[in-house]
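Work through this protein:
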Amino acid sequence: MENKNWYELTDTKDVISPSLLVYPDRILHNIRTMLEMAGGAEQLRPHIKTHKTAEIVEMQLGQGIQKFKCATIAEAELLAMCNAPDILLAMQPVGANLKRFFGLVDTYPESKFSALVDNLDTLKALSEMARVQGARVSLWMDINCGMNRTGIFPDKNAIDLYRKMDADPNVEAKGLHAYDGHIRNTDVAERKKACDVAFAPVVTLKNNLESEGIKVKGIIAGGSPTFPFHAQRDGVEASPGTTLLWDAGYGDLFPEMDFLPAAVLLTRIISKPAKNILCLDLGHKYLAPEMPFPRVRFLNLEKSIQKGQSEEHFVLECENAEQYAIGDVCYALPVHICPTVAKYDSLQVVSEGMVIDEWQVVARNQRITL
């Protein structure tokens, strides 16, 4: 039987709730849209933090994508296990992660690894560890372009740090990394303007360094909200992540982007404890709770207001609650997909209304082998 709605399963009796369903045909659409927007794979470096899944990495490799970005050592190892050629750890390694990063380099010699640095102390630590191991470490300088989360301001201190990177015999200075996740204007023209303003000092920094004869090999910039703009810049690798699965949050903010939601929560009504109240089995353990309500957009549950969430429960006020029965299946798009994926050991793979496979979310763990 053909489904009326793209997200619906024809048979749910053996599907555990909550589950996170993924739709490979939609993921493939999103990958191809990313490639089209970037003009090909050369200027594209997608982030895997959203999905953390080997099969989705392999789908991207199959479409010619060679360069990837990740946030954890486990994600970097997953990419290496998939034989990804070029892997950026976009989290400055400190503490035990310094040794783990060099462990990746030793264990997976077929992949090229790089990392970020934004201060002299970390540069020295990375350089010394590379010297001891008789290797060169590939580093990008992380720029604070307004988000104030990580990075060095693109001023004279950044010039001095990059000089030291370039002059260090144990370091390969790869270029500049600038993440502008704070730019989320819903108006496209205003978002582009804000993106250009934030990116201009990065270009100036590159030009100032090259005027000294220091080659800046490349720039990695942006995330999903500014992907359309960085994807059009010559010599810049754009690095979207949420675009692989998309979510209700970005779908509402950026409707002009041609990405499809490719991950849906399946949940069930478990109780009707009071008039106009429904309770679902979609607690904190299964849906990221860091966003204000609404935390999901229901696809088949109308006239409801999201009122509360605890470890195991999600409570709704529903004016037509009498239309729903205990045990009914509900489908919902997360507002924030990235931390929601990390709550699941596996993704249920859907094709033509049926669960046909199960993909392990391998890199949700802090450690794979290293």
Observations:
- The chain has two domains: 24-241, 262-364.
